[in-house]
Amino acid sequence: MSEDFDVEFIERGDRDSRFLVRGVTPAFANGIRRAIIADVPTLSIDTVRFIENSSVMFDEQIGLRLGLVPLSTPLGEFEEGDSVTLSLDVSGPGTAYSGDLVSSDEMVQPADDNVPIIDLKDGQRLELEADAVLSTGKDHAKHQGGVAVGYRHLQRVEVVGDRDAYDEAETNILRGVIEDDGELVPTEAFDHDLTNRYPGKELEVHDVDNAFVFSVESDGSLPVDDLVTAAADSIASRADELEQAVQL
């Protein structure tokens, strides 16, 4: 990998982003993907203490659902193994949602308020305390802040001539992002069909060397920017540790 690489956003949001990285090898691209999934710590409910559960659902089932509720995890505020307590006290009739969880730390809140936990009937009550622990996806999938992370080569389309007027037109499906005269064009802009963008043309599609388009979706525990930055820092830290170990 070269020492310098460029990053250009194609779509940018807190939960869902797509960006181009130039000047990196396939191995480095895969390392970033794996680090986003496995190395960036997030908070997730790990232990639940039930005070009252008169619902129709077993404690273990409710605990499983609570563990899958994404919690906001500010970078640098906690160390791995730290915990935050949340409580829930809901009576029926009605539905208990993630937004009903009350956190002991204002920095840690459910990433979404509308995740259903259980539907309570008249006379039923659910009261509990839960400890959310900071850990990584290597420990458990519920700590994976990147719920959908992938990458693929940036591709370049070359017009090599005109299609024979008597050739029957066929769809030419391509998914991802193409580079056209320096412009980055998502394939959904032309319904993923190259014949819509280049009607009547003979085409060749080439991968652009060392240029990868990443698609990253966050569960809300961290913004995508923070997920990617923390993953890159993780790789850099492990590289430094390896370099020091080799020099011993």
What fold name stands as the CATH topology of the largest domain? Gyrase A, domain 2
Q: What is the CATH homology-level superfamily of the largest domain?
A: RNA polymerase, RBP11-like subunit
Instruction: Note the quaternary state here.
Output: single chain
CATH architecture of the largest domain: 2-Layer Sandwich
- Helix-strand pattern: EEHEHEEEEEEEEHEH
The parts where pLDDT drops under 50 for at least 5 residues are none
CATH class category name of the largest domain: Alpha Beta
Largest sheet: 6 strands, mixed
Q: Compute the number of strand runs.
A: 12
Which strand order do you get reading across the main beta sheet?
1-2-12-9-10-11
Distance, first to last CA: 25 Å
How would you describe this structure to a colleague?
- The protein is α+β, with helices and mostly antiparallel strands.
- A hairpin with a 4-residue loop joins strand 1 and strand 2.
- Strands 1-2-12-9-10-11 form a 6-stranded mixed sheet, sandwiched between helices. A 4-stranded antiparallel sheet has the order 3-8-4-6, covered by helices on one side. Strands 5-7 form a two-stranded antiparallel ribbon.
- The protein folds into 2 domains: 6-39 and 146-236, RNA polymerase, RBP11-like subunit (Gyrase A, domain 2), CATH 3.30.1360; 43-137, DNA-directed RNA polymerase, insert domain (RNA Polymerase Alpha Subunit, Chain A, domain 2).
- The longest helix is centred in the C-terminal third of the chain and has 24 residues, at 224-247.
- 20% of the residues lie in helices and 40% in strands.
